[in-house]
Here is the input.
Amino acid sequence: MEESIFQTFLLFAYSDIALLSVTIANYAVSASFVGREIRLSRWRMEKRKKKLSEELRKFQEKPQIEEIKKKIKEYDSEVKRITTRIWLLSWLGAVIFPSMFFIISFVSAMIGLNLKILVNDPSFLQHQLLILSIGTISLGFMILLFVIRTIDSAARKIPIPEFKISFRGGTERIKYKSKQKEKIFFCLENKGEDIAEDLEIFLLFPPSFNIDKDINYVIHKQGLESDNPDYNAAIFLEKFIHIDTTLDFEVIVTMPDKQGTYEIPINICERKTGTHEDKLIIEIFE
Here is the structure.
């Protein structure tokens, strides 16, 4: 029995040393994400705060106490989650906190290994130290798993641009009279967490639409290999679109003769994200 307890203490001592090494190695990885996460987290909290203020302003017009409390609780919860995420990637969260438990477990194991030298009747203290060593190494291991999960999440969630396109006014559907020449305004918003770079925006019109030439865009007829053969594309080139920024694109178009509902496919090519596909609707009436 004593030999078995001795071997258990020895196993925990070796495990603590190994886990301490893993903890330090983890920080070497997490440190590369800390700066980016702090910058993004400040931006996310500021954005969430602005959104909360707008929502509370709406609720104050028609006081809804429960909804206000709910929104504030959601905001506090999100801020807490973001703060915890940053802390787990920091030196304190990734190294000091789990290492503290591993060191306590290691010290307990070492005392347990030498307990016969320290006291006359070690049997009771051996069990207490064994429980302490098991408990602290388990807590440290759980925290280490949380840190690894946070590192994995930070590595996977690379900030990228995200796009929302609409007609002017935020609508995705618009009506025009047939045979009429119109200036159509498209609005492209970057709703993501990073700047969009080297963009090519293709606004694809069915063959029955006639696009007028303009210096702001290039007109290109789609070939048979395209997903939209015979469509005419008005192509815009943009160097970049900042975060939370909306750009307007104006296309001069003569509407088709026939009334009906027409889909306008939109392809946005960006350097980091590749191609984003979307569509808007134009309704033609007599």
In short: DSSP finds five helices and ten strands in the chain. Strands lie at 163-167, 173-177, 181-190, 196-205, 210-211, 218-221, 232-241, 246-254, 260-270, 274-285. Residues 2-156 form one domain. The first strand starts at residue 163 and ends at 167.
